[in-house]
Amino acid sequence: MREVKIVATGSYVPEKILTNDKLSEVIDTNDEWIKSRTGISKRRVSINENTSDIATKAAMDAIYKSDIKVEDLDLIIVGTATPDCYTPSTACIVQKNIGAVNATCFDISAACSGFIYAVNIACEFIKTGSAKKALVIGAEVLSKILDWNDRGTCVLFGDGAGAAILSSSDKSGIMAIYTGSDGSGENLLKCNAASLGINNNSLSIMLNKDKYEENNFLTMEGREIFKFAVRIIEESIKKLLEMSKLNMDDIDYIIPHQANLRIIDFVSRKLNIDKNKFFVNLQDYGNTSAASIPIALNEMSRKGLLKKGDRILMVGFGGGLTWGGAIVKW
Ligand code: ACO
Fold first, then answer.
1. Out of 79, 240, 286, 326, which residue is the most buried by the measure of CB atoms under 10 Å away?
2. Where are the domains positioned within the chain?
């Protein structure tokens, strides 16, 4: 069985910065409320770039930094909850944009855990010999599914994309990885796809049934998600340490999904883990869902924070409910 390592990372965020103060000019909120409840100061929002556009830019950033030719990529997986289309997949559009003509391409729907899920799948392809070089992307334009009149959700999220190139290797880079799901929490964080209402209202009128109504914005039970998040981060950290036979002293950094600073603080206190071990950049980007972990990983790499041999524990959680984590040796 082959091993897998991350050979390059990349990211891209849209130019437009939306600060808490700017948001408070259009909805009933304020910088103090958002910062104290979430840690978020600003986020990026896309004006005219769709998910495949920002995914392509993150992918090119990673490709430029690697010595890999696009034709060598045999797999592209995009984790996203905000694809451009139902079909084709965002991954197929990225393939066309970058010219990776030899890749098999598909998307993964696992909300904020999408990047970890995609890395896990890419690892399996590489370990079994079905692929040698994989491009894994987490990309979201959440601004298009947010209800900008709902201050309980719209202040939390941002747009962005992060990418990693995975390659088969003699030495292990990905030391442990796992994912999990619990569909019984389907309603806690949800965004409907095409409403039955659009086509089916005419059908229901024909059939003399009640009109079917639902919205297509992201909805969230914030407190339930908070409880789920702190429980599952703790479980994931313990599980990954057990799988890799490491302990917390062996871990140099933790990259949690960048949802909310209070979630991270809570876990740090509960597990008695030094707060400085957690890399946090949600103050600048908000919650970018599937993109948050690869954006953070690339930022750490770009800032020179990661040394060869460092062990990084990544942990994601999100709608579905879904979760997952990995320990990576840099
Ligand atoms: N600005 C000002 N006031 C607000 C805002 C806002 N943006 N949003 C809500 N409020 C008000 C509410 O209307 C309510 O007012 P009321 O008491 O007069 O009715 C009050 O603040 C408290 O509202 P709650 O929703 O109960 O706020 P809570 O303290 O639970 O904080 C939060 C909300 C921050 C979302 C919290 O539940 C949380 O941290 N949840 C975790 C979920 C999370 O981070 N999700 C991210 C996405 S999920 C993921 O990535 C997996």
1. 79
2. 3-171, 176-185+218-329
- Residues 107-133 have pLDDT tens digits of 999 999 999 999 999 999 999 999 999
Residue 33 CB–ligand 1 contact under 6 Å: yes
Q: Which residues pair with 49 in a beta bridge?
A: none
> Closest residue (by CA) to atom 40 of ligand 1?
222
Is the Cβ–Cβ distance between 285 and 258 less than 8 Å? yes
Residue found under tokens 């990673």? 62
Tokens representing residue 27 in the block? 């909805």
The reply to whether ligand 1 has any atom less than 6 angstroms from the CB of 287 is yes
CA 80 remoteness from chain centre = 7
CATH no., domain 176-185+218-329? 3.40.47.10
Within this chain, domains 3-171 and 176-185+218-329 share the same CATH topology: yes
Q: What is the CATH number of domain 3-171?
A: 3.40.47.10
Q: What average pLDDT does this structure show over 97-102?
A: 98
pTM above 0.90, yes or no: yes
- Among 227, 289, 302, 303, which Cα is nearest to 258's? 289
**Cα(116)–Cα(121) distance, integer angstroms:** 9
Q: State the Rg of the chain over Cα.
A: 20
